[in-house]
Design a protein that fits this description.
Distance between the termini: 193 Å
Helix content: 25-40%
Largest sheet: 4 strands, antiparallel
Shape: rod-shaped
Strand order of the largest sheet: 5-4-8-9
Strand content: 15-25%
Length: about 230
């Protein structure tokens, strides 16, 4: 029987881990024993992230987007109203132009439809007059007279009667003077003018005045012809 002696440290084969009793971790004196993760109590949850910044950022972005949308709608509505106004003004101007054109056309048509007045046929008798000096006859009562030289031409196909009593003189004041017979030596004769003939002579009025025109009445009750005295 052999006697076993205790082995000194460093003698004999070292024991490998897993053989015999498990090796324990050295513990510090005075420090609490900490459990390793996976052993015993669960690990503490991660800290919560603060979401306040995200909410503020999302709110600002939403406000900006809202203003952008409002601006786009305002521009679209403004452009539509401008287009409508321009179209309305264009239509109004076209309608005004059409109305004015229609009115002008109607006026032109009315002027064309109105019957034109035909010029009166030219008289076959032509009368002309001009100023002349008074030539006193032996039958004149003094020299307070005014004479006008007239010419009668028959351009028609019928005979024309000429007589000093068929004439009157109107002065510049509008006063009409009848002929004074035999006062002027050159008084127009009483004749019958055949077609193509003419006669000249003076017509004399009582007093001193400025003659404006001479009026000849064919046969006293016939047509009247006027000749200005230049």
């Amino acid at each position: 029987m052999s006697q076993q002696y205790p082995q000194e440290p460093g003698y004999g084969p070292p024991q490998q881990p897993g053989w015999g009793t498990p090796q324990q971790q050295p513990t510090q004196w005075g420090a609490p024993h900490q459990q390793q993760p996976g052993w015993g109590a669960p690990s503490p949850p991660p800290p919560k992230k603060n979401s306040t910044g995200k909410i503020v950022g999302i709110g600002c972005a939403g406000v900006v987007a809202l203003f952008v949308i409002i601006g786009i709608f305002s521009a679209a509505l403004g452009g539509g109203s401008d287009d409508s106004s321009s179209k309305g003004s264009t239509a109004s101007s076209e309608a005004t132009t059409e109305d004015s054109g229609t009115g002008d056309d109607k006026t032109a048509e009315a002027e064309q439809e109105e019957p034109t007045e035909e010029a009166p046929p030219e008289s076959p008798v032509k009368v002309t007059a001009k100023k002349t000096a008074f030539t006193k006859s032996i039958l004149a009562d003094g020299s307070n007279y005014t004479s006008v030289l007239v010419t009668i031409a028959n351009n028609g196909d019928e005979q024309v009667d000429v007589n000093p009593l068929y004439f009157t003189i109107t002065d510049t004041d509008g006063t009409k003077h009848t002929a004074e017979l035999a006062a002027d030596e050159n008084q127009i004769d009483t004749v019958d003018l055949a077609p193509g003939e003419n006669v000249s002579g003076t017509i004399t009025g009582k007093g001193k005045f400025t003659a404006k025109y001479v009026t000849y009445t064919d046969g006293l009750l016939g047509d009247s012809l006027r000749a200005d005295v230049p």
